[in-house]
Predict the structure of DNA mismatch repair protein S5 domain-containing protein.
Amino acid sequence: MIVRLEEEVVNRIAAGEVVQRPANALKEMLENAIDAGASQIRISAEDGGLKMLRICDNGCGIGEEDLPLLCERFATSKLRKYEDLREIGTFGFRGEALASISHVARLTVVSRRAVDGYARRATYKDGKMVTCSPCAGEPGTTLTVEDLFYNTKTRRRAFLRGSQTEQYGLLLKVASAYAVHYPAVGFVCGKRGATEDLNTMKTSSTEETLRALKKTKKNLVQIGPTTERDDDDLDEDRFECELGGYVGGAEDGWFLLFVNDRLVDNAAIKRAVDEFFPRKTCYLRIEVPKRHVDVNVHPTKKEVQLLHESRVLALLRRELHKLQEERPMSEEEGVSE
Ligand code: ADP
Ligand code: MG
């Protein structure tokens, strides 16, 4: 017999796809903080983010009238019409992240806009606001996620049995990636009550942040930046691409790819880098016209589809080849510096 699933069940299933582990929740909340114009973001975690994950930003804050809708699915301040998706300039667009989190964890928000006299604390469960009251607080937003997967027993058990150190490592990796890509934003990340493992408050450039994080003084070389554009072509789908980054340092295979400021995965691009600089640390940023990227292919927005992937790959290969010719990266020689 076919029956319609209850909305509650549908929402929880969907939520489980968006939030598969603490690091997914963190990525979403970091993007929200950046969308909110934050220049300072602090992350603190307990038990790899399973017991507690807190993100505190100094961004624009959330007004009282928006709090009831905050965790409702498909409620967003960023998208109005489907057509806007083509030129979307924010990370978020479908109002799914906080809704999802509220379906698989206990969520508390403390937020204040600069114009407000005080902050408000609101708690959420299954997409709905449960409580809301005034409290003291600085301008900005603090989100606290507690007891992740408390209502999905199997997943919680699997996580609790697994390594929380590994989950924390993934949190730190996501935070570090954004710290590299957003050097003007100060990032702090640590386990609750412990000294922080990431603190980029004082570093000012991507290169410095990358060097500091990788504790590497040598062997880091710059990729590009380079731009390629088919000027004679008048088609709005004509190829256009800018890419840049750094490669070298430790042989730890830390591969960071940002496409139009989104942290994403792309196997073909990673393979291309590996062909030239196997296992090296690599930070790569690629910018293409917004309409050339489909960000809507995956619930976690982790995979993006590029309209001209083969052209992007060719441009990347050309740059990497040039680098290899100019500065052969042999272990003894140590290039750069
Ligand atoms: P989306 O980012 O797709 O809009 P989210 O569920 O991530 O969906 O967030 C819902 C809404 O909550 C956002 O559109 C934004 O208005 C607000 N919001 C979330 N996080 C923050 C934050 N850190 N600062 C200010 N506003 C926020
Ligand atoms: Mg969002």
Summary: The domain at 7-204 is CATH 3.30.565.10 (Heat Shock Protein 90). Residues 227 and 242 are 4 Å apart (CA to CA).
